[in-house]
Amino acid sequence: MQLGMIGLGRMGANMTTRLERGGHQVVAYDRDPAAVQRSVGDGAAGASSLADLVKQLTPPRAVWIMVPAGAPTDDTITQLLGLLQPGDVIVDGGNSKWTDSKQRYLRCKDKGIAFVDCGTSGGVWGLANGYCLMVGGDDAAVKTVEPVFLTLAPEGGYAHVGPSGAGHFSKMVHNGIEYGMLAAYGEGFEILEKSEYHYDLHQLASIWRYGSVVRSWLLELLEIALREDPDLKAIRGWVEDSGEGRWTVEAAIDENVPAPVITQSLISRFVSRQEESFSAKVIAALRNQFGGHAVKDENGVAAAGSKAGA
Questions:
Q1: Are strands 158-162 and 132-136 parallel, antiparallel or unpaired?
Q2: What Cα–Cα distance (Å) separates residue 141 from each residue in 155, 156, 184?
Q3: Which positions ≥6 away from 1 have C-beta within 8 Å?
Q4: What is the DSSP letter of 243?
Q5: What percent of the chain is predicted at pLDDT more than 90?
């Protein structure tokens, strides 16, 4: 089928290529003309603007948005609502907040345009391996775009999971679970790295891929990372979060669901970004005040005036 792809970053460009290889006709647009030309080189038709993209599509049109969540997605939808016609379909395949998707569904419905929220997992490996797709929206709209979903996903990796918002809600929880899994691997391998046994961490990551109850695709990726950089010297322990972990914790609170693992894994990411913890300074100062416990200066040396005894 014919599809317009808006946003040709790491995910959007690879999805465009996979669709082209699967026999679909993709009209591709990005604010960066060089990104458009790369997709054109892979077989897509290039568009110079959103208006140009819509003009090249045959009604009823299907347009896939793959831009950052929040304002960029909202701005793109606002522009599309002024260009599309009733009967057209917009798919948001980014990591949008599910409540935003429900509101966007209503905005589009008012214009007679269908809106589908698609939770997309697969990262940079999706071109070769396919993308897991969790799709929310009306049955008719999902069926219209289903040929695209079936091409992007590996066998068994796509499902229409519910009405508006259900796709992005399930992807949010998916990423919350990912936070906890990443934290567990990180903590476990640090315990190994600090132990007296001088483990070959790459060796352990490698053998755990076979028959172990902790084997997973994440472990396979860790094996690759440790093979390339056994001590991870080229990587600083600074971890970003893109929103889904926070939203998962918010949902857990709203639903009165205890989620300590996901919550703590999110907090650990905040800790990773601190050059110096003011909270730890407060604790050290208080321990020094009430118990005479040693404190250290900014160079790690016992500070003058410390109340600690010998």
A1: parallel
A2: 21, 20, 39
A3: 24, 25, 62, 145, 147, 148
A4: S
A5: 84
Per-residue DSSP letter, 77: H
Nearest to 243 by CA among 32, 73, 30: 73
pLDDT in tens, 191-241: 999 999 999 999 999 999 999 999 999 999 999 999 999 999 998 898 988
Q: Please, are residues 92 and 147 in contact by the beta-carbon 8 Å criterion? A: no
> What is the average pLDDT value for the chain, to the nearest integer?
94
- How would residue 247 be classed by pLDDT, with cut points 50, 70 and 90? very high
The residues annotated with a catalytic role in the active site are 171, 178
The CA distance from 263 to 177, in Å, is 10
Owner of token pair 């599509």: 57
Q: What is the pLDDT of residue 80?
A: 98
List, in sequence order, every residue forming a beta bridge with 46; answer none if it has no partner.
28
- Angle formed by the axes of helices 139-152 and 10-21, nearest 10°: 90
Strands (E), the chain: 2-6, 25-29, 45-46, 62-65, 89-92, 114-121, 132-136, 158-162
